[in-house]
Amino acid sequence: MSGLAREVLAAVRSSGEYDVLGILDDDPDLLGTSIDGTVVMGATTDAPAFRRALFTVCLPGSREREALVERLSLLGLDEDRYASVVDPGVRVPRDSRIGPGSIVMRNATIAPQASIGSHALLKPQVNVGCSVRVGDFATLSPRASVGEGARIGRAAELGMSAGVGNGLSVGDYSQIELGSAVLQHVPESETWAGVPAQARGPRA
């Protein structure tokens, strides 16, 4: 079980918004064990059996989360079966949107009119500016900062302390390495790094 899952579990309990039923994990050695007081009840393929439950996919990688959600959709899990988890200390403006299955961790800042897609992950101390669009399955690592009006594409990843300037876009499935400063538009499926960030080749 990932550290992310433990943090999400703690956030859910702190918020009191949901009751925690259990954990699904594909490690057969964990079946029936208790993790932080919560029982591992089965594998991810067992999700459809819990007909009234809501789920959050706690995998740290964008493409990992996307692949699992796609597998679960083939088993009949629709988007309305996912719960977003927002740390209770995070203030979400009324005119901002957070999609189903997304996770917003402690000390993140979300400005007005921001839109966070489905199954996105905002790690601690992330800053999302006004009118930013964060795509489905995107991952923003700790202390990443996204300037006003910027767009982060589907399953794109921003490394720790990376920054994206106002109005710029990071293309779908692209990756910005830690500490990088994006000062121009980033195409799809590329890896960029440096200050200012420059292309380093296709995303691995």
Radius of gyration: 17 Å
The topology string of helices and strands comes to: HEEEHEEEEEEEEEEEEEEEEEE
Widest beta sheet: strand line-up: 4-6-9-12-15-18-20-21
Main beta sheet strand tally, sense and closure: 8 strands, mixed
Amount of beta strand: 15-25%
Gross geometry: globular
Mean pLDDT: 96
| Low-confidence spans | none
**Portion in helices:** 10-25%
Individual helix count: 2
Structural class estimated from helices and strands? alpha/beta
The total beta strand count reads 21
What is the CA–CA distance across the termini? Answer: 24 Å
Describe this structure in words.
36% of the residues are buried. The strands form four sheets. Strands 4-6-9-12-15-18-20-21 form an eight-stranded mixed β-sheet, with helices on one face. It has a five-stranded parallel β-sheet with strand order 5-8-11-14-17, with no helix packed on it. Strands 7-10-13-16-19 form a five-stranded parallel β-sheet, with no helix packed on it. The protein has helices at residues 3-15, 62-74, and strands at 23-24, 34-35, 38-42, 85-86, 97-98, 103-104, 109-110, 115-116, 121-122, 127-128, 133-134, 139-140, 145-146, 151-152, 157-158, 163-164, 169-170, 175-176, 181-182, 190-193, 198-202. The two termini are 24 Å apart. It is an alpha/beta fold and 204 residues long. The longest helix is centred in the N-terminal third of the chain and has 13 residues, at 3-15.
Tags for this entry?
single chain, 204 residues, alpha/beta, 8-stranded mixed β-sheet, 5-stranded parallel β-sheet, 2 helices, globular
Task: Reconstruct the topology from this structure.
Elements: H1 3-15, E1 23-24, E2 34-35, E3 38-42, H2 62-74, E4 85-86, E5 97-98, E6 103-104, E7 109-110, E8 115-116, E9 121-122, E10 127-128, E11 133-134, E12 139-140, E13 145-146, E14 151-152, E15 157-158, E16 163-164, E17 169-170, E18 175-176, E19 181-182, E20 190-193, E21 198-202
Parallel strand pairs: 1-3, 4-6, 5-8, 6-9, 7-10, 8-11, 9-12, 10-13, 11-14, 12-15, 13-16, 14-17, 15-18, 16-19, 18-20
Antiparallel strand pairs: 2-3, 20-21
